[in-house]
Design brief:
The chain contains 19 helices and no strands. It is mostly helical. It has a single domain, classed as Sodium/glucose cotransporter (Up-down Bundle), CATH 1.20.1730.
Length: 473
């Protein structure tokens, strides 16, 4: 990937071991503070306050893709790459009012699957679970690949070493700490990410001014400054809809709703979205700096580490290591915990073994955490594609869930057959658009088709749903 490692192997080993021990110790410690029942393991006792709720939302959304793929699109699309990626914050902003309604309608629920099963029935629920699992695996793979790329680029370690190390650490402290361990480590990880990103931006633009960057781009890469660039506009629209699909359907965000106090749910999603939006803007700005300085980038995923190390030397490589390590582990732990919650509650307790005890649900969730961690290692064993291209592929699936979720929460006439058809047809047309038109339009097409099918189907054959049924978990 690069001719020489950016970070001394000894320093890289020290950072890897130090932060691995820290995250595992904190996760175990926070896990031991809980009561030990299923609600505590899966949802941290449903008592998360504003600071922790905001931090875990922000940290979970700051993924390896945000710190690696956001600079990638900033480097390839310019301003629209940077600003368009920031539109992924719309998912958190727009979910805030839905979060309040979910909390009121389903005070004892545990998963997004609970809503789909109770609102639309078991057929739609099965389709929804398939979409969720496909998306989750894709997301987990991108984080695993990001981990391998990080250590390979920064220290020269083998790709598989970094991948296995980061996934192993996240799996370990999630296994022992549950949601309490995830939320606690997310709080520290979010503070680290924000503080160090601000440091990188200030030091970077202290060496190369905004005027110099703009002048170089205008002279050598004018298309990167074109705000009417068709590819950039399409990317921005697609990113906004993709983020809505990711947040509206995924159990990461539903579990945060159920885990947080009712009084903080709305504010935490708004504040978490605001905090997150700064991250792709900062990392995208670093990518523009790489363009302006004609930095040779052999792998576009690694724009951010390369330019930061070039500008700040070995100290910059250390900063990058900490930022990306924190962003990868904070997302992996959230994915593992939320997916374990969904599989244990929906698949095991409501499908395979109805009527099992809370203790058995907790044990099932722990087994799923381990299984998903091992599966992610296996599927990430070879680096095979751009991280963002893989996510765009899953965007064709998750965008189809936006309207069934939103309409189902507010519109009692929303029809279950229409919801099922909207998810299936939206996913199919989105995947066709991904392959036949362009990856950037996959989520856009999927969401549009899903909206039409959901709206028309419910208008022609309206239901009369009773909201009280959602309280029956």
């Amino acid at each position: 990937m690069t001719d020489a490692p950016l970070l001394d192997a000894g320093i890289a080993w020290f950072l890897l071991v130090a932060f691995s021990v820290l995250w595992i110790a904190l996760g175990v410690w926070w896990g031991k503070r809980g009561k030990g029942d299923a609600d505590d393991y899966l949802l941290a006792g449903r008592n998360i306050g504003l600071a922790l709720s905001t931090a875990t939302l922000m940290a979970s959304w700051v993924t390896g893709n945000t710190t690696l793929a956001a600079p990638e699109v900033g480097y390839t699309l310019g301003l629209w790459g940077m600003l368009g990626y920031a539109l992924a914050g719309l998912g958190l902003f727009l979910f805030a009012p839905l979060a309040i309604r979910i909390k009121r309608l389903m005070p004892t629920a545990r998963t997004s699957g609970d809503f789909v099963r109770l609102r639309y029935g078991r057929v739609c629920w099965a389709v929804f679970l398939l979409i969720t699992m496909a998306y989750t695996l894709g997301f987990l793979i991108t984080q695993g690949m990001g981990a391998g790329l990080l250590l390979q680029a920064l220290s020269g370690f083998d790709y598989r070493l970094g991948m296995v190390s980061v996934i192993g650490v996240s799996t370990t402290y999630t296994l022992f700490g549950g949601m309490r361990g995830v939320v606690g480590t997310d709080f520290i990880q979010s503070l680290l990410i924000m503080a160090l990103l601000v440091l990188v931006a200030v030091l970077g633009y202290g060496r190369i001014s905004v005027d110099e960057v703009y002048g170089a781009l205008a002279a050598e890469h004018p298309s990167r400054l074109n705000m009417l660039l068709p590819a950039g506009l399409l990317f921005a629209w697609n990113t906004g809809l993709f983020s809505m699909g990711e947040v509206f359907h995924n159990n990461i965000w539903w579990s945060r709703v159920f885990a947080s106090r009712p009084s903080v749910v709305f504010r935490s999603f708004i504040l978490g979205g605001l905090a997150w939006t700064t991250v792709p803007i900062v990392t995208g700005a670093i990518a523009l700096m790489a363009l302006a300085t004609n930095l040779e980038v052999p792998q576009v995923n690694m724009v951010f580490p390369l330019i930061t190390a070039q500008l700040l030397g070995s100290g910059g490589a250390i900063v990058v290591f900490i930022i990306i390590f924190a962003s990868l582990t904070s997302t992996l732990d959230s994915l593992l915990a939320a997916s374990a919650d969904l599989i244990a509650e929906d698949v095991v307790a409501h499908w395979l073994r109805p009527g099992i005890s809370d203790a058995q649900i907790r044990q099932a969730a722990r087994l799923v955490v381990v299984g998903l961690g091992l599966l992610t290692m296996l599927l990430s064993w070879q680096y095979f594609t751009s991280m963002y291209q893989l996510l765009l592929f899953t965007g064709a699936l998750v965008a189809s869930t936006i309207w069934p979720i939103a309409m189902g929460l507010y519109w009692p006439q929303a029809n279950r057959q229409a919801a099922t058809a909207a998810m299936v047809l939206g996913s199919i047309t989105g995947l066709l658009a991904y392959g036949l038109v362009a990856p950037y339009c996959a989520a856009l097409v999927s969401a549009a088709v899903s909206a039409g099918v959901m709206g028309l189907g419910s208008h022609w054959n309206p239901e009369r749903f009773e909201w009280r049924l959602l309280a029956d978990r």
